């Protein structure tokens, strides 16, 4: 059989066929498919936990070329997910959580020599169009295109529990299925598609009750590649440049809302002139809207007044982002939610007109006491035209679990708007931002307020040195700082960052923090529904006056 010409690396696959009046399309999965994929998995695996949207988002973001969907009349009826891994990882004992990075596909290694399949599901109601076979063909084509040694995955054995009394154990069951003495629909399908059983993997997926947590390691070896020893593929040092601006904003008294907006627009305009892709504003930068009130408002009155501006801020900054063709991370703004609680919210206004919100998860003691601000319960990446990003508001950057979640979902830039009154508070945010950049091998961008606003609570004094932080390794700045502003001076700091350097560092860097995590020892479990808040936290008196405190 002649080998088909390989498509260029990164080429998107898309095949479309018609069956009577029906239309079947097989292509790479996209972010817009997440809801359909999640619904499909729930239909197929009714007796097992479903994927969260964040897990599927991570699978696609971490290796979009390895995730495929089948759509019948635009409905998702098939999905498969793969990643590249080293041979040693693929063939050593492991379970599903460990090999997939807890379901996010975050252990994808672009230098790995094997394609590892960790999800394959087809709508059982769709018959006669060979969706499973088509998805397997996409996997094989990808392995051939990238000159990988082969494909490996752990296949279910769903008839094992029902037939276990007729066999002496999972290995005997596998042998009898191979010999044709017993029937297992999944294993027979995989055998028919050219995969060979390697060994039984006990305890692979405890949630798989039908297989009694067992799986079969199935292997397909690429006939176009002959290797006596595993090889380490190299990742080219490419260029994926993104220009980032961080605005160190002077707190100033304004005469009305329009003057405040003109101040914001000035910096957006300047960043746009420099062709920046992103501009970040500080936390609580809208507090200067309180400066033209006739009297200093109490904390409760101030929150109510600020929340009235939320619709205008969202609309005006979104229009600004589109007009100046730049993605605006609009610091943060206290907002009253539908349930009546006040949250500290970062609005991300993208240049395509979409608006996203990331709530602060951990309000500081002062925020909780003086403004009764409540924490949000969701953190997820935001898809932009420069790839997925994350936002952590000030104090949130001091909780490493949040950044790790964002990195697992594919974030390569994390924006941290902050508001700190002292050098100590600032350094807490700065040092934690640097730590997040190192441990997640990502860029972290900080933006803070400077100056003061008399008669406006939480803006008595400010301390900031906004900066753009990098991992500490050879491709990056010597001291891990791509750029930084002068202390306590209003300015715009701009730097080009190369996202491709992150891919290289994660795969071939001096240290590989993401890849070297011990999933066999520890992992983070998220309560996706937020239904288990635990015991109420004691309400503590703040230390010192009513300032933001920060970090």
Automatic annotation (TrEMBL):
- Known PROSITE patterns for this protein? CN_HYDROLASE (PS50263), GNAT (PS51186)
Task: Report domain CN hydrolase positions.
Answer: 242-499
Domain N-acetyltransferase, chain residue ranges per copy: 24-223
Q: What keywords does the record list, in alphabetical order?
A: Hydrolase
Start and end residues of each stretch annotated as Disordered: 527-551
Annotated CDD domains: NAT_SF, nitrilase_Rim1_like
What is a single Pfam family found in this protein's UniProt entry? Acetyltransf_1
| InterPro entries reported for this sequence | Acyl_CoA_acyltransferase (IPR016181), C-N_Hydrolase (IPR003010), C-N_Hydrolase_sf (IPR036526), GNAT_dom (IPR000182)
Any one Gene Ontology molecular-function term assigned to this protein's record: hydrolase activity
Q: Which PANTHER family match?
A: HYDROLASE YHCX (PTHR23088:SF50), NITRILASE-RELATED (PTHR23088)
Write down what this protein is called: Bifunctional GNAT family N-acetyltransferase/carbon-nitrogen hydrolase family protein
């Amino acid at each position: 059989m002649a080998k088909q010409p390989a498509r260029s690396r990164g080429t998107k696959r898309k095949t479309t066929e018609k069956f009577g009046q029906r239309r079947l399309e097989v292509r790479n999965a996209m972010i817009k498919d997440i809801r359909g994929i999640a619904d499909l998995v729930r239909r197929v695996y009714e007796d097992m936990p479903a994927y969260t949207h964040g897990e599927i988002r991570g699978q696609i973001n971490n290796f979009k070329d390895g995730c495929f969907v089948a759509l019948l009349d635009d409905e998702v009826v098939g999905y498969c997910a793969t990643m590249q891994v080293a041979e040693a990882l693929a063939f050593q004992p492991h379970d599903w959580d460990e090999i997939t990075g807890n379901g996010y596909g975050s252990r994808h290694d672009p230098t790995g020599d094997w394609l590892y399949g960790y999800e394959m599901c087809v709508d059982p109601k769709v018959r006669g169009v060979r969706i499973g076979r088509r998805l397997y063909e996409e996997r094989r084509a990808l392995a051939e295109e990238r000159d990988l040694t082969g494909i490996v995955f752990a296949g279910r054995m769903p008839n094992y529990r029902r037939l276990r009394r007729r066999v002496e154990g999972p290995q005997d069951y596998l042998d009898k299925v191979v010999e044709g003495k017993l029937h297992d629909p999944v294993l027979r399908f995989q055998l028919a598609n050219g995969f060979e059983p390697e060994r039984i993997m006990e305890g692979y997926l405890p949630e798989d009750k039908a297989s009694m947590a067992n799986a079969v390691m199935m292997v397909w070896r690429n006939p176009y590649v002959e290797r006596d020893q595993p090889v380490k593929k190299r990742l080219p040092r490419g260029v994926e440049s993104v220009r980032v601006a961080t605005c160190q904003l002077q707190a100033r008294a304004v005469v009305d809302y329009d003057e405040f907006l003109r101040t914001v627009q000035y910096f957006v305009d300047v960043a746009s002139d420099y062709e920046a892709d992103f501009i970040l504003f500080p936390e609580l930068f809208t507090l200067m809207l309180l400066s033209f009130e006739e009297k200093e408002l109490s904390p409760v009155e101030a929150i109510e007044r600020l929340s009235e501006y939320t619709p205008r801020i969202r609309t005006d900054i979104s229009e600004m982002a589109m007009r100046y063709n730049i993605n605006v991370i609009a610091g943060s703004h206290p907002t009253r939610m539908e349930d009546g609680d006040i949250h500290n919210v970062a609005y991300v206004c993208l240049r395509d007109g979409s608006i996203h919100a990331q709530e602060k998860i951990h309000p500081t003691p002062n925020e909780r006491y003086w403004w009764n601000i409540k924490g949000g319960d969701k953190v997820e990446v935001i898809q932009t035209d420069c790839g997925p990003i994350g936002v952590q508001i000030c104090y949130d950057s001091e909780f490493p679990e949040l950044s790790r979640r964002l990195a697992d979902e594919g974030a390569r830039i994390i924006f941290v708007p902050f508001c700190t009154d002292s050098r100590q508070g600032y350094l807490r945010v700065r040092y934690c931002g640097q730590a997040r950049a190192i441990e997640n091998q990502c860029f972290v961008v900080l933006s803070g307020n400077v100056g003061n606003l008399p008669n406006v609570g939480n803006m008595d004094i400010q301390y900031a040195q906004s900066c753009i932080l990098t991992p500490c390794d050879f491709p990056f700045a010597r001291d891990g700082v791509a750029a930084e502003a002068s202390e306590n001076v209003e300015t715009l700091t701009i730097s080009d960052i190369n996202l491709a350097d992150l891919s290289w560092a994660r795969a071939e860097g001096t240290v590989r923090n993401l890849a070297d995590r011990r999933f066999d020892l520890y992992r983070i479990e998220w309560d996706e529904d937020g239904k288990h808040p635990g015991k109420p936290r004691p309400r503590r008196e703040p230390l010192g006056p009513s300032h933001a405190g920060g970090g």
